[in-house]
Amino acid sequence: VVAGAVFGFWCCVGDADETEAMGMFREGARYDRRFFDVLSRAAQNQPVLVWKVGQTSDGARAVSFHAATKTMDPGQWEATVRRSGAINAYGMDDVIDTLKVLLLAEKPHGNRVGLIAPTGGTSTEMTDAFANAELSVLPLSAGSYAQLAGFFTTWGCSYQPPIPGLGGNRP
């Protein structure tokens, strides 16, 4: 994870062929245009996650006192990061978990996802998170449903995505 204080170094790392993914922490947006240009360039070469603190009015006030930097409206920040091709992160765990997936999982081929979650509420929350990230949770094939029926039990739920039911799997 690259701290905002080493932005010049980060500019160079974003162009390096060996860099597979990047994570960045920001307190403020001191170099708005320059930041967007470098972020856009880096995001063309590899996935880039950006976690910015100070997204609430209280947090923005704390950043302005602590780091003496201006803050950006949260909606404007979200749009700026999305337009650059980078990925917004919402905490250190989010940065680390997402980077692990990006580095270790098979690369996706589109925006469709399958989802199996422990409960209906959790699966609904995850479906919303995927939709907010412009991913689609689509129904599985009939063959997939038949295979799932071989080892999942449904307690008041179904196999329609999102699939709640990890808690009811058979040994």
What is the topological layout?
Layout: E1 2-3, H1 7-13, E2 22-26, H2 32-45, E3 48-52, H3 57-67, H4 74-84, E4 87-89, H5 92-104, E5 112-113, E6 116-117, H6 120-132, E7 136-137, H7 142-149, E8 163-164
Strand order of the largest sheet: 1-2-3-4
Which regions have little confidence, pLDDT < 50, spanning 5+ residues? 1-6, 165-171
Radius of gyration: 20 Å
- Report the sheet-strand fraction: 5-15%
Q: What overall geometry do the principal axes of the alpha carbons give? A: elongated
How far apart the termini lie comes to 40 Å
User: Regarding quaternary structure, how should these chains be classified?
Assistant: single chain
Q: What's the average pLDDT?
A: 76
Helicity, as a percent range: 40-55%
String of helices and strands: EHEHEHHEHEEHEHE
Characterize the largest beta sheet: strand count, sense, and whether it forms a barrel. Answer: 4 strands, parallel
Q: Helix/strand/pairing class, anyone?
A: alpha/beta
Q: Please provide the count of β strands.
A: 8
Number of helices: 7
Account of the 3D structure:
By secondary structure, this protein is α/β, with parallel strands linked by helices. It has 7 helices and 8 strands; from the N terminus they run E-H-E-H-E-H-H-E-H-E-E-H-E-H-E. The chain is 45% helix and 13% strand. The longest helix has 14 residues, at 32-45. Helix 2 packs parallel to helix 4 (74-84).
